[in-house]
């Protein structure tokens, strides 16, 4: 079983080793049925039974860190960007998106593009609708 999942007890997230992201408790069955068809049915049932015994957080409740200070084992690490505008906490893995985001601050008198963002390492607990880079 440990070849497929990692349980992060501190943050209560079950991580898929292959996809390097958390698995929503609501999608656990579907994740293994649809995305891991090569995994034997008996192993999938064992994983599901194990997960039912764990306290798992919903994706909406997963913690967001201001910056990656230490890498969360099992999660993908991305090269990304962080906005520098005052209290803005925006992170993204794409240069085009950070530039577009920073242009929104131009109307606030913040015009120097080179000082608007910096390169950082980022991670996200979940993919899809629950992607929130940290």
Give a short synopsis of this structure.
The protein has 134 residues and is of the alpha+beta class. It is built from three helices and six strands; from the N terminus they run E-E-E-H-H-E-E-H-E.
Describe the structure.
The chain is an alpha+beta fold. The protein folds into two domains: 5-61, no CATH class; 78-130. 22% of the residues lie in helices and 18% in strands. The protein has three helices and six strands; from the N terminus they run βββααββαβ. The protein has helices spanning 28-35, 41-52, 95-103; strands at 5-8, 13-16, 21-22, 78-83, 91-92, 117-122. The strands form two sheets. A three-stranded antiparallel β-sheet has the order 1-2-3, with no helix packed on it. Strands 5-4-6 form a three-stranded antiparallel β-sheet, covered by helices on one side. 22% of the residues are buried.
Key terms:
134 residues, 2 domains, 3 helices, elongated, alpha+beta, three-stranded antiparallel beta sheet
Uncertain residue ranges: none
Quaternary? single chain
Number of helices: 3
Question: What separation lies between the terminal Cα atoms?
Answer: 28 Å
Shape: elongated
Biggest sheet overview? 3 strands, antiparallel
Strand content: 15-25%
Q: Tally the beta strands.
A: 6
Structurally, how many domains make up the residues? Answer: 2
Sheet with the most strands: spatial strand order: 1-2-3
Rounded to an integer in angstroms, the radius of gyration calculated over CA atoms is 18 Å
What sequence of helices (H) and strands (E) makes up the elements?
EEEHHEEHE
Q: What structural category arises from helix and sheet content?
A: alpha+beta
The percentage helix is: 10-25%
Mean pLDDT: 86
């Amino acid at each position: 079983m440990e070849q497929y999942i990692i349980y992060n007890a501190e943050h209560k997230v079950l991580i898929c080793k292959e996809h390097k992201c958390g698995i929503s408790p609501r999608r656990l069955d579907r994740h293994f049925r649809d995305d891991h068809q090569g995994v034997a049915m008996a192993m999938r049932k064992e994983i599901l039974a194990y997960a039912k015994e764990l306290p798992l957080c919903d994706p909406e409740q997963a913690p967001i860190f201001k910056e990656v200070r230490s890498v969360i084992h099992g999660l993908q690490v991305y090269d990304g960007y962080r906005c520098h505008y005052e209290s803005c906490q925006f992170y993204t893995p794409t240069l085009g998106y950070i530039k577009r985001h920073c242009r929104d601050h131009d109307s606030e008198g913040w015009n120097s593009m080179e000082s608007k963002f910096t390169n950082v390492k980022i991670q996200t607990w979940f993919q899809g609708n629950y992607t929130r880079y940290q």
